[in-house]
């Protein structure tokens, strides 16, 4: 008899009704990112399509501002989140983000290099509150990096192939970088913030976060924008990432209890997908060769 190649899910503990409902909520939040739809409702035009058609100079400005915003967020995540106390309700963070968006809406693209890092740090603190509420220890570098990872998870474009851009696919792309970065910080402290692995992490997150920033800029560039429009757009912006963070940290909490494989299988079942097949030995090839 051939040895079993993968752990069996039959012996995995059943989720409690509350945890199963929490996972259902997480699937809803993570499988249907809704920022483009919210911005389209505000602007009255399909901002996702407009975002892809932005001029090269605007795209370059977005890329630069996105990287600066994530660099600032990473420093906050690693230096101040572990020691921070509760910093306010989700509504407070949304209000602060709306205020920064009002400034950005008033001054347009020129304000993006200043406004986006401020908004990003505000969103990070809101994400950290959600992480702590789901049992994360932000003194653990991996948990702090998971807060920044949310900006990549919330930056998946709805029109791309789900197999390549889905929640677990995005986590898989970042997993090795997050693990290596967390190990570096745990072993050597924060003296190596410019280490290549952290630069790589920021670049990977920025590539996805930039998609959403492009949609935000596209919405702010439409005639409805201005101070009031900018505030509403930023409110939707942070609301989107808080939803993604809630789903992400629910999944992480349940993984700590039931194991990653069991939660992935149940997640896929709830989402209406077949889980990936377990690896198996290719007996056909060996028979042919013999």
UniProtKB/TrEMBL annotation:
This is EcsC family protein. Residues 268-290 are annotated as: Disordered. PANTHER family: PROTEIN ECSC. It comes from the Bacteria. It comes from Rhodopseudomonas palustris. It holds the Pfam family EcsC.
